[in-house]
Design a protein that fits this description.
By secondary structure, this protein is an alpha/beta fold. The protein folds into three domains: 31 residues; 89 residues, Ubiquitin-like (UB roll), CATH 3.10.20; 63 residues, Photosystem II 12 kDa extrinsic protein (DNA polymerase, domain 1). The chain has six helices and seven strands, in the order αββββαβαβαααβ. The longest helix has 25 residues. The N and C termini lie far apart (71 Å). The relative contact order is 0.10.
């Protein structure tokens, strides 16, 4: 094998260093981690592709019985299940069956994974506490407790939910006959996707 000249060694060395730097930078950019947004434990996903880089992203708050509650950026096509997964998944006490994991996320939405109660239905607890009722798990009886929803409308909402695999937003209720923009606006504080 012929010996390399000093100038060839310098060129090969420079190429090796450049490749090493590119590799280190690529590895550093591919690691998606959560970084503190501010003191107090609130986190914002700092993964690649957020809206500063041109990708459409949603910002959601995941709370309740999850391993790493916080604020996360997710693709605009994300579902509630994606948000729960990004927050480290539900804890052992998390009642994920009480929320609609298939619902589409909306920007600014809060996803709360309730804790399992001793036989208590979390949506019933939410309704009793005066909080919004989940469209993903509400019964006809729970929907009827809301002003502006009677038995017929409650049945239509459940039927719509079953036909479409869930309700991703309050605005989707406008597709149900008898529910218009005024009704949707009046229901906004009483319901959540």
């Amino acid at each position: 094998m012929p010996e390399l000249s000093r100038s060839q060694l310098l060129v090969y060395g420079a190429i090796a260093i450049a490749l090493l730097l590119v590799g280190v930078r690529w590895i550093g950019s591919s690691q998606s981690s959560s970084v503190p947004a501010e003191p107090g434990g609130i986190t914002v996903d700092a993964g690649p592709g957020d809206e500063r880089r041109g990708g459409a992203r949603l910002v959601v708050h995941v709370a309740g019985a999850v391993r790493d509650p916080g604020i996360y950026r997710l693709p605009e096509t994300a579902r509630v299940a994606d948000a729960v997964e990004r927050a480290g998944g539900a804890t052992g006490d998390g009642a994920v069956d009480a929320i609609n994991l298939a619902a589409r996320l909306a920007d600014g939405q809060q996803v709360v994974v309730p804790e399992r109660g001793a036989g208590a239905d979390s949506s019933a607890v939410s309704a009793a506490a005066g909080g919004p009722i989940s469209l993903g798990s509400a019964t006809v009886e729970q929907l009827e407790t809301i002003d502006g929803i009677g038995p017929v409308t409650a049945e239509k909402i459940i039927e719509f939910r079953d036909q479409h695999g869930g309700v991703g937003s309050i605005e989707e209720l406008g597709e149900i006959s008898g529910i218009g923009p005024v009704t949707i606006e009046s229901l906004r504080d009483s319901l959540q996707p």
